[in-house]
Amino acid sequence: MNTPLPPRIDRRLAIKWMLAASAGAMLAHPLKLRAQGAAAPAGKGYGTDPDLMKPYKPGDFWPLTLTDAQRRDAAALCDVIIPAEGPNPSASSVGVVDFVDEWVSAPYPDNLKDRPVILEGLAWVAAAAQKRHGGAFADASDAQRLALCEEMAPEAPEPSELHAASKFFRRFRNLTAAGYFTTPPGMKDLGYVGNRPSATFDGPPPELIAKLGLTDEVKW
Fold first, then answer.
1. Concatenated DSSP letters for 1-27?
2. Most buried of 26, 53, 62, 70 (most Cβ within 10 A)?
């Protein structure tokens, strides 16, 4: 039996989804609903290497895909998944929508596979919100947004009209987690302390070394 998953993720699940997204976990069986947005990227090659000393903004490398309406719905969906909580900001406020837009716009093979899943999934969400509440998903109440996400959150078996929507939602959660927890606020939320200069390095805790039966002695 499939166990429903909460639309609001906890930190441990978010890390798992972030790893799954970075590994390029793909979704199959796209929704049978025409997606709105820019045409698929075309052309040969991926362009030149970026200048690592130059700041870039979304859209500098290739045309972005999401329409204004899709970005609004995507932002609302991101914030159901990772809302503001205490000192931690919401997913949309740290640019996760830009990350999703860049992801589905990139010309690389894995991104091209995700593109129809995300676009058609957002189209499904928009159509469902319009049918049920008479407006955009972004304009629905918090309770209405949550109810729709809870409907998509369980892993729907085949055959089911929610099977494709469920796969879209799981993929979107992966991307939301990946985008959020690789921002400075997201890494702070996790307690990640890497990539910072330090005058000292104390090494692993002695109790961990003892538990693993290792030694901190360095042999040359």
1. -PPP--SS--HHHHHHHHHHHHTT---
2. 70
Q: What residues form DSSP beta bridges with 88?
A: 85
Backbone angles phi, psi at 141, to 5 degrees: -70, 165
Where in the sequence is the domain holding 161, given as residue range(s)? 11-212
| Range from 12-21, 43-52, 100-109 that averages highest in pLDDT | 100-109
4 is a domain residue: no
Chain centroid to CA 180: 7
Helix axes 68-81 and 163-180, enclosed angle (nearest 10): 80
Q: What is the pLDDT of residues 20-43, one digit of tens each?
A: 544 443 333 334 333 444 555 555
Residue 159 domain-assigned?
Answer: yes
pTM of the model: 0.73
**8-state DSSP, 85:** B
What's the total number of domains in the chain? 1
Q: Is residue 219 part of a domain?
A: no
Q: Which DSSP category does 137 fall into?
A: G
Q: How far from the centroid of its chain's Cα atoms is residue 129's Cα?
A: 21
Q: What is the pLDDT of residues 118-149, one digit of tens each?
A: 999 999 999 999 999 999 999 999 999 999 99
In a domain, residue 218? The reply is no
Identify the helix (H) or strand (E) that includes residue 173.
helix 163-180
